[in-house]
Amino acid sequence: MLSLSRAPAASALVVVLALGALVGACASGGTATIDAGGRAYDAGPGDASRPVDMRVGCASGQHVCPSGCTADRTDDPANGCRLGCGSAPCTAPAGGTAICSAGGMCDFECAPPFVREGEGCACTPRTCDDLVAMCGTPDDGCGTPLACGDCGSGSACTSGRCVCAPDPGEPNDTESAAIRLGATNDADNGPTLTETIYNSDDALDLDYFFVDVTDGTDGGNPVLTVTLDGMPAGSNLDLVAWYRCTAGGDAHTCTIGSNYSGAGGTGCSSVNPGTSTETVAIDTECSTTDDSGRLVVRVATSGFGMCGNYRLVIETR
Ligand SMILES: [Ca+2]
Ligand SMILES: [Ca+2]
Ligand SMILES: [Ca+2]
Ligand SMILES: [Ca+2]
């Protein structure tokens, strides 16, 4: 048996040969090589990069180095880890951080978006979709700016979203924050409410409004027609309206638009493409002869275009 403690420290070749003989007796028939950091690797045909057990042949608490058996170190990448031989800290490739492996050797890990590929860290570029960016030139995570698009006239790109100046009704993004547009009476056929001061200020904007409706003594139930038009170029806004009877028993008929039923109530929706006019009409029906109630209108942003107000018209007949 060769004694590593007597190997000339200055002769790496001798050490390599010695380790080769040592490892050859207990590993899978390959020969070992030592890298610049003093790490021994099995150069056999099975796995040329697999570290061999550097404690073989040394006393407990020691491991093999070119200079002979050496006391194990503190397991810290700053000093080459527990089974290191030199005094240099562990190194890591670009995008990586030096660590100690579970076996006490220098190793590294890659921080996202970098991922380990062999002995390096490779960056997987993120897309505009990954970043939920609809505009601007955010970094792809690897140092390259992306082109996520421009915002329409009058809007600005803020944190990857196109935004316009909010309308005076904001924030009205939930029904509980809905803007009251007024009161109408079907016996008076109105008044017709025409709103032109509201807009979609970003790609996620929802605008809620409500109207208190009285079933007047005209012999019929209120019929409510809501029209959404005048949308700014490049946008796509959609319309939903529902009606809640004061007395309950909602059993309305949707005479224009598609039947809608949601948490807020039942009514109609209109989902046309682009800037096409959206129109819904609800023929109300409640559990009593008094069909008074509340009309709720929601304008949702499906496509964000240029900044500009839309027009909302609510008719009561
Ligand atoms: Ca708005
Ligand atoms: Ca809103
Ligand atoms: Ca009536
Ligand atoms: Ca639409």
Q: Would you give an account of this structure?
A:
The chain has 317 residues and is mainly beta. Among the domains are: 1-72, no CATH class; 175-316, Jelly Rolls (Sandwich). The protein is built from one helix and 21 strands. The protein has one helix at residues 12-24; strands at 32-34, 40-42, 62-65, 68-71, 96-100, 106-110, 114-117, 120-123, 156-158, 161-163, 179-185, 193-195, 206-214, 223-229, 236-245, 253-256, 258-262, 265-270, 278-283, 293-303, 311-316. The protein has a six-stranded mixed β-sheet, with no helix packed on it. It starts with 11 loop residues before the first helix and ends with a strand. Bound molecules: calcium ion (4 copies).
Brief descriptors of the model:
317 residues, Jelly Rolls, six-stranded mixed sheet, five-stranded antiparallel sheet, 1 helix, 35% strand, binds calcium ion
Q: How far apart, in Å, are the first and last alpha carbons?
A: 106 Å
Largest sheet: 6 strands, mixed
Shape: elongated
Please tell me the CATH architecture of the domain at 175-316 by its name: Sandwich
Highest-level CATH class of the domain at 175-316: Mainly Beta
What is the radius of gyration? 37 Å
Give me the CATH fold name of the domain at 175-316. Jelly Rolls
The sequence of SSEs as H and E is HEEEEEEEEEEEEEEEEEEEEE
- Going across the major beta sheet, what is the strand order? 11-13-20-15-18-17
Query: Can you list the ligands bound to this structure?
Result: calcium ion
Average pLDDT confidence is: 85
Instruction: List the uncertain runs.
Output: 1-31, 42-48
